[in-house]
Every structure is written in structure tokens, then in C-alpha cells.
Amino acid sequence: MESYALLLAATLNAGTVLAIASLGLLINEKAGIVNLGAEGMMLCAAIAGFAAVVHTGSDVAGFLAGAAAGALLAAIFGWLVIWLNTNQYATGLALSLFGAGFSAFAGISYVQEKLPERPRFAIPGLADIPFVGPALFRQHPMVYLTIAFTLALIWFLYRSRAGLVLRSVGEAPESAHALGYGVRRIRLMAVVAGGALCGLAGAYLSVIYTPLWVEGMVAGKGWIALALTTFATWRPARVLLGAYLFGGVTMLQFHLQGRGVEVPSELLTMLPYLATILVLALMSRNPTWIRVNMPASLGKPFHPGS
Predict the structure, then answer these.
(1) 40 contacts 95 by C-beta, under 8 angstroms
(2) Sequence-separated (6 or more) residues with CB below 8 Å from residue 20
(3) Closest CA relative to residue 207, chosen from 69, 34, 22
(4) 25: burial class by Cβ within 10 Å (0-12, 13-18, 19+)?
(5) Does the model's pTM come out above 0.85?
(6) Is residue 126 part of a domain?
(7) Quick one: signal sequence residues (predicted)?
């Protein structure tokens, strides 16, 4: 029973990385922008956050540094695709490649560094409940903040005027522009916010989830986060549930290995990526369902006055 509680706890921890990044990408795509640079932003944020904690000893400084790194790279991406009208897909891929190379270069001197002793968190009273306590109430505060942010994002997108404007920019930017809204400014703000969340996910990965710095440590999680937004049909609650699903698949390999299940380790390592491919393959069989839920102007450039 204890092993299953630890599996559930690890699932929440692993899913948080994907959830934060996916929610950031969802904000981008709700505004009509596709950013394929999530992997690169997360890598740069991971080394930025790790380095900040090494030098300051503060996890908060690490999260802020990661979010700032993600926001900066996203701002550059936004300037290129929104104001200079470069191709969103090509620019995102270039950002991803840049992030992989730059993070490897910047992180050379941090490979052997160790973070200060990691604090342990527990909610008094609840953490001692059998099974439930170790599974749910001994998590890092970021796990609970991610759930709270998901609820707040649902309210923002579907209950607030600002959220309605953001969605209208992603659905019909020409109409939003005709009503006097600054489409390009709103899109840039959404891209920067999404980049900050991707950066926060990268910092969480290197500061809390591992915690260490290794070249390429994001290991495809940025691409899974991109797939997850489609898998969740651009709904925040589904993004959160999907992130935990993929987090569970990731942790399952370690759980099976710990229980002595005779399965090749290479196959277990492939599980998260196989699950991603399988889900996308199943969804592609019903393109109408995706098209109905997808923001109408996703990936399409907007030229004011054209």
C-alpha cells in the first residue's frame, strides 16, 4: 500500500512539470499563437533557476529566474512572429534549438554543482493520514499552486471580460481589431505569460523535481506539453488531468522496476512518448472534433489594416 501512495505522490510531482508548461502553452494558443519553442525555453529556464539557487540558496529566486528566462525568450519569439510576421512554426523550432544549445553551453560549470539541502513539506494533521497523507499532503507548495492556478485560469478564460477578449483574439482577430482591441499587444502579453509559465516549469524541474542540472534534462517534456494542449482540446481542467496521466505513465516505469517486473528498461523509458503518440494518433482519427475545439486563428498571422 505504501508503494502505491508513493507512486501517486510521484505522479503529482511529475505531472506538475507538464501541467505548468501546458497551461502556459494553452494561454498562447488561446490567443492564436503556436510556440514550438517550449523545449528550449524550459531548458534555459532550468539552468537559470538552478544557477540562481546555487548562488542564492533561495528556491524563490530560482523560480523567479526561471520564469524571467522563459518570459524573455518568449518576448523575443513574440516580437519576431507578431511584429515581424516570421513563420510561427519555424521560429518556434529555432527557439527550441537555440535553447538546447545555449543551456548546454551555459550549464557546463553547473553539472557537478549541488543544491542546498531540500526542505520537506507536509500539511500538519493531513500528512499523517494513512495512504492519503503520503500521497497527497506531502507535496511541494507548487503542486497545490498549480491546481489553484488551473481553477483561476478557468475562471479567467470563461468568466472574465479579459478572458473573453483573449479568446476573441484567438478566434477572430480581425473582429477584435475592429472593436478597438490591440490584437498584437494582447497576443504578445499572452506569449510572454505563457513563456513565463514554461520557464517556471523548467525551474521546477531542475530545482525541485530532480534536483540537479544535466544537459538536455527536459528530455522531451516540452514537446509532450505541446501535445497535451491538443489532447486536452484547449481546456485547462483537461490539461491538468492529462498532465497527471502522463506523469503517472512516466513514474510507472520506476514503480515497475522497483517491484522487480521483468520488462526491458528501454521499453519502460519509451512509455511516456509512446503514450503521447498513441493519444495523438487516436485523436487524429476525428479531425472534426479537434477543429471544433481549436481556436480558429491558431497559427495564422494577423496584419492590422490588411
Answers:
(1) yes
(2) 142, 146, 197, 198, 200, 201, 204
(3) 69
(4) buried
(5) yes
(6) no
(7) none
* Cα–Cα dist 306/95, whole Å: 28
Range of the domain at 257: 2-112+132-293
For residues 65 and 213, the answer to whether their CB atoms sit within 8 Å is: no
What confidence score (pLDDT) does residue 18 get?
A: 95
Alpha-carbon span 51 to 60, nearest angstrom: 12
User: Looking at the domain assignment, is residue 124 inside a domain?
Assistant: no
Residue 120 placed within a domain: no
Given a contact cutoff of 8 angstroms between Cβ atoms, the answer to whether 31 and 176 are in contact is: no
Question: Could you tell me if 226 and 66 are in contact, meaning their C-beta atoms sit under 8 angstroms apart?
Answer: no
- Residue, of 208 and 246, whose pLDDT is higher: 208
Q: Specify the DSSP class assigned to residue 218.
A: T
For the chain, give the percent of residues with pLDDT over 90.
Answer: 68
Question: How far is the C-alpha of 78 from the C-alpha of 34, rounded, in Å?
Answer: 10
Q: Which residues contact 10 (CB under 8 A, 6 or more apart)?
A: 247, 251, 254, 255
pLDDT bracket for residue 7 (50, 70, 90)? confident
How sure is the predictor about 51, in pLDDT bands with cuts at 50, 70 and 90? very high
Q: What is the CA radius of gyration of the chain?
A: 20
CB of 229 closer than 8 Å to CB of 25: yes
Number of domains in the chain: 1
Asked if residue 305 is part of any domain, the answer here is no
Quick check: 246 and 224 in contact, CB under 8 A? Answer: yes
The CA–CA distances, whole Å, from 300 to 31, 82, 86, 166, 219 equal 11, 10, 11, 15, 29
Q: Which residue has the higher pLDDT, 302 or 78?
A: 78
pLDDT of residue 6: 81
Query: Can you read off the three cell numbers belonging to residue 87?
Result: 513563420
> How far is residue 214's CA from residue 50's CA, in Å, rounded to a whole number?
10
DSSP track, 72-137:
HHHHHHHIIIIIS---HHHHHHHHHHHHHHHHHHHTGGGTT--PSPPP----TTTTTSTTHHHHHS
